[in-house]
Structure formats: C-alpha cells, structure tokens
Design goal:
The protein is of the alpha+beta class. The protein has helices spanning 2-8, 68-79, 83-96, 106-122; strands at 19-24, 45-50, 56-61, 98-104, 128-133. The chain binds L-tyrosinamide. L-tyrosinamide binds next to strand 3, helix 2 and helix 3.
C-alpha cells in the first residue's frame, strides 16, 4: 500500500531531507528510436531512498587531575546521563583511559565536544573530549540476497544451532 502511495505521490513517506528522490527508469519496453515529442510520453517513476547520516562517538579521555565529581557532573549536564550512568562512564574512563558519552550526528557531536572543552577550560581542568567517526553497520536493506553458501557472514542471517 505504501509502495502504491509512493508511486502515485512521490513525496509520500519522506520523513526527512535525508530521503532523496531519485528518478528511476520506467519498466516500459523502449520502442526503437522513439524520442519524446508529439504523441509520445515519458513516464518516470521515483523511488525514495533513505540515506543514514554518518554518526560520531563522543569520547572522554582520562587524566590524572580532573576530579571525578567534575566528570560525573559533565556527563549529567551535557549528555543527559543519570547519576548512576554518569558514575559508570566516569569509572570506565578512569580505569580504561577512554569512555563513550554518546553517539550523535556530526554537528551535534562537535557541539558537545566544544561545550565540554569550554566548560573544563573555564574550570581549569585538563579534561579532554574528542569525537570519532563511527563505523557503519551494514544496512540490512542493502545486503545482497542470501547466497547459497550459508557460511558467508554477510548474508547468513540465521544463527547456527548451538
Ligand atoms: N582519573 C581522574 C582522577 O583520578 C578522574 C577522571 C575520570 C578524569 C574521567 C578524567 O575523563 C576523566 N581524578
């Protein structure tokens, strides 16, 4: 039904500007050498394609001087973590050197990094906050059709019996 609606109204279902309209060739068989003009019509169908934005992880780095409570307060203020989550992330950074505060689109990640760095600088703490591009998970809609070989990790969607 949604496909029909999209065919009739090309904008149907386009939830965001990420959904680009792309004309696709008509399935009508081409008649030899016919050019559009008097008596000929060109039928173009459009299909909406969703493109996922690149996503960025915002990370905190450990140092020996920034107080733990300050890091916890940052996680609550800028990353909307509750007290328990914030404590867990802070301890993760403290023990392992790095921890993830959240995953955002480019502009939001960049803003978070600036906010944290400004706030740390104003309070004279050496806290470092960085962003890193997140690897894309393969999009299920664009995976090749299941091949005969079930050992292929890309297309094997069924779990092997354990
Ligand atoms: N290691 C710091 C301390 O012992 C605490 C800390 C945690 C600092 C996380 C930075 O991103 C950080 N006071």
């Amino acid at each position: 039904m949604a496909r029909l609606a999209r065919w009739l109204y090309p904008g149907f279902g386009a939830a965001s500007p990420q959904m680009a309209m792309r004309p696709i060739a008509s399935r009508e068989p081409k008649r030899g050498g016919e050019t559009p003009g008097a008596g000929a019509a060109v039928i173009t169908r459009t299909r909406t394609q969703t493109k996922r934005p690149n996503m960025y992880r915002v990370l905190l780095l450990n140092d020996d001087y920034t107080p733990m409570e300050f890091v916890v307060s940052i996680l609550q203020a800028f990353f909307n973590k509750d007290a328990q989550e914030a404590m867990q992330i802070m301890l993760q950074v403290h023990h392992n050197g790095v921890g993830e505060c959240g995953v955002y689109t480019y502009e939001i990640a960049e803003t978070k990094v600036s906010q944290v760095m400004d706030h740390a600088r104003k309070n004279q703490h050496p806290l470092q906050c960085i962003m890193e591009k997140k690897c894309k998970a393969p999009d299920a809609n664009f995976l090749p059709r299941a091949r005969k070989d079930p050992s292929s990790s890309l297309v094997a969607r069924q779990r092997a019996p354990s």
